[in-house]
Amino acid sequence: MANQEDIQKITLVDENGDEALYEVLFTFHSEEYSKDYILLVPEGVEDDEEVDIQAYIFNPDENGDATEEDLIQIEDDKEWDMVEEVLNTFLEDDANFE
């Protein structure tokens, strides 16, 4: 796993106004949809802990950074399927967790 200093974090605010800190699992670009995606996990989870991974469309700035306001919900089922396929490929590759 990456060094703690290398892990990017973002704070999300839910519908109740509660804040939660998330770590960026990874980002990727889809040529098919011409969009960038970001996948997030709650901060501080153990490698073997089961968690809900948050996935969003995002519009990074020229430095590749984004804020919560840059995150867009994925509403298309086919787009969700594509994101899940990329996530599953990522999770199956043990090299991502060294």
TrEMBL record:
Pfam annotation, one family: DUF1292
Protein's name in the database: UPF0473 protein D0501_05140
Domain of life: Bacteria
InterPro entries (alphabetical): UPF0473
Family: Belongs to the UPF0473 family.
